[in-house]
Design brief:
two-stranded antiparallel sheet; globular; 618 residues; Amino acid/polyamine transporter I; mainly alpha
Length: 618
């Protein structure tokens, strides 16, 4: 977290806030050659949206189950339970515990909720109860984000604060349970020898990236809505601190409960811990059953889990929606007509792609895609993302960008992590992950995936991994250079305007730009995004952009009309301080004999005008 998590979070917030775009548009502006890294983050977010919603579906199922007269995981008398079902009350009946005994909560999740099959090769049929819950989950997601950041931000005020209140209540109760100290000893006593295993580092990196939202594109997307002068260092430290404290609190709550279960089952903590989503749905229901007014606390717990799942799902889907808007603004406006229709299409497609997770063999597919999409691919993506920004675009440039926004350059600690520490650590972890690679398993290694399932997992992983090299080849081939180095240099050149004299994006040399084309400096915000950077866009002539919150000089942007005028042999006297209304008619009209053809006009528009999702047209 210290070497990768905090520095990468700070970097992504800086990139998103400065460019005002999603991951594809932002990385494409800074380093076109690695624009595929932004595309890869969108692919990973889409893959995650298809199976992460299943956790929400499980939570909905348990939430409604909590309203039954008795909780079905309290006793062993239900039809789905086996003879080896075990509860502590059987000790009073002089019943000996079986070595293969299982708790009612385990049996309820496996045999009632999942109706689990023998393996991924036995798909069988859809679990229609879970399909209905999955549909309900996507219904909630759609109506929470259909108005973009306006609607989802309001929902988060509730879904992000309520869980903290409930976590504290559950934490206090869990610490009073018998055997809680046993779980605490396991949680806080380190096993230093495990640091020599690559999988421990891989899991640590994956957990850091998942909990902090790094490399998924969500932080870049959300930061693009910020005011231009927003203090991203405060945001970085706040998110990192809250994330660490929350992880600690939930860890204490979880292992105190696990210690209690291990004591009741007369077994070790290791035997109680489950992999995958089983930790939530095996362990916590048993703890809820011990609370006074158990049904109420169970309903509150799974409502809390529902809120937490929706929070993450909002961010994941927002990345996909924002990136599609950035990439295909004209098609969306023509075919889908409005933002709400685009969100609906994304939700429907993700719902359909998530149906394999709610079959009888769905939990095996869930574990497979989670392993390959969220662990292996995410580190590969994070490595190339930091290379694109810190190495190719340059740590000096990104530091100047941060200073232009906040008035304060990043510290030496951040620069060192961006350039050396984080890339080396991520690269080393990823390489050792491949060297010590082991095929995924389920149920503590009892089930091993067949070869075709492992191949399928790597194919799923390659959907995001191949985005970076394939898109780099495409960008390289588009360049007009005559030599390899010329094409490489052009493909790595940033699209952001820099003053030729001082190298600044914001400078006091507006008169020296006359007669020269001025690249669009920043992507502009739309009406849904907060207006704070003072950048405006005029489709026909130069417009004066008001000063930034840092009292920098006005920004001049390049538009279709001015590019055509600047392409003439006669230089045009351009002033950034003269309002468009004061221009003469002769300055606004293009001579007929020099009029460009329609195709060139469309190409210029594509280069100049930001997408409808991220632009504010004046």
């Amino acid at each position: 977290m210290v070497i990768c998590g905090v520095p990468l979070l700070y970097l992504e917030l800086a990139v998103g806030q400065f460019t005002g775009r999603g991951p594809i548009g932002a990385l494409g502006q800074l380093c076109p050659l690695f624009k595929g890294a932004g595309l890869a983050s969108v692919v990973i977010s889409f893959l995650m949206s298809t199976y992460y919603s299943v956790i929400i579906a499980y939570s909905i199922y348990y939430f409604f189950t909590a309203f039954k007269p008795t909780l079905p995981w309290e006793e062993c008398s239900s039809l789905w339970n086996l003879q080896d079902c075990w509860i502590p009350a059987k000790l009073n009946q002089n019943i000996t515990k079986s070595p293969n005994s299982r708790t009612p909560a385990e049996l309820f999740f496996d045999r009632k909720v999942l109706q689990i099959s023998k393996g991924i090769e036995y798909v069988d049929s859809l679990r229609w109860e879970l399909v209905a819950c999955l549909l309900c989950a996507w219904f909630l997601v759609y109506f929470a984000i259909w108005k973009s950041i306006k609607s989802s931000a309001k929902v988060r005020y509730f879904t992000a604060t309520l869980p903290f209140i409930l976590i504290i209540a559950f934490l206090v109760k869990s610490l009073t349970l018998e055997g809680a100290n046993k779980g605490m000893q396991y949680f806080f006593r380190p096993k230093w020898e495990l640091l020599g295993q690559a999988q421990v580092w891989v899991n640590a990196a994956a957990q850091t990236f998942n909990s902090m939202g790094i490399a998924f594109g969500s932080m870049i997307s959300f930061a693009s809505y910020n005011r231009f002068s927003n203090n991203i260092l405060h945001d970085t430290l706040a998110v990192s601190f809250v994330n660490a404290v929350t992880s600690l609190l939930v860890g204490i709550f979880a292992f105190a409960t696990i210690g209690n279960i291990a004591t009741e089952q007369n077994t070790s903590v290791e035997n109680v811990i489950a992999d995958g989503p089983g930790l939530i749905f095996y362990v916590y229901p048993q703890m809820m059953a011990k609370m006074p007014a158990a049904r109420i606390w169970t309903a509150l717990f799974f409502f809390m889990l529902l809120c937490l799942g929706l929070n993450s799902q909002f961010a994941i889907v927002e990345v996909v929606v924002t990136s599609i808007q950035d990439g295909f603004p004209a098609m969306i406006k023509k075919r889908l007509l409005c933002h709400e229709m685009l969100v609906l299409v994304v939700c429907v497609v993700s719902f359909l792609c998530g149906l394999p997770n709610v079959t009888n063999g769905g939990i095996y597919f869930f574990q497979l895609i989670d392993h390959y999409a969220a662990s292996i691919s995410i580190m590969y993506l994070a490595f190339f993302e930091i290379i694109a920004v810190a190495w190719v675009y340059g740590v000096r440039r990104i530091s100047k960008n941060v200073e232009s926004m906040t008035g304060r350059a990043p510290s030496l600690y951040f620069k060192f992590c961006w350039v050396i520490a984080a890339p080396l650590l991520i690269f080393a972890v990823w390489i050792f992950c491949l060297i010590d690679y082991e095929a995924p398993t389920y149920n503590k290694g009892q089930y091993h995936y067949p070869v075709w399932a492992v191949v399928l997992g790597w194919l799923i992983s390659s959907l995001s991994i191949l985005c970076i090299p394939l898109y780099a080849i495409y960008i390289f081939a588009k360049q007009r250079g005559t030599t390899f180095l010329d094409k490489l240099r052009q493909s790595m050149q940033s699209n952001l305007y820099e003053c030729e004299k001082c190298g600044e994006h914001f400078c006091d040399h507006p008169d020296e730009i006359r007669g020269h084309e001025v690249q669009p400096m920043l992507v502009l915000k739309n009406s849904e995004r907060p207006i704070g950077n003072g950048i405006h866009f005029d489709a026909m002539n130069y417009s004066s952009a008001s000063n930034t919150p840092l009292t920098r000089s006005p920004i001049t942007t390049r538009t279709l009309h001015t590019r055509l005028m600047l392409s003439k042999s006669k230089p045009v006297d351009v002033s950034t301080t003269v309002p468009a209304s004061d221009w003469t008619e002769s300055e606004k009209v293009i001579p007929k004999d020099d009029s460009p053809n329609p195709s060139s006009i469309s190409n210029e528009i594509d280069d100049c005008v930001p997408s409808s999702s991220n632009s504010e047209t004046k």
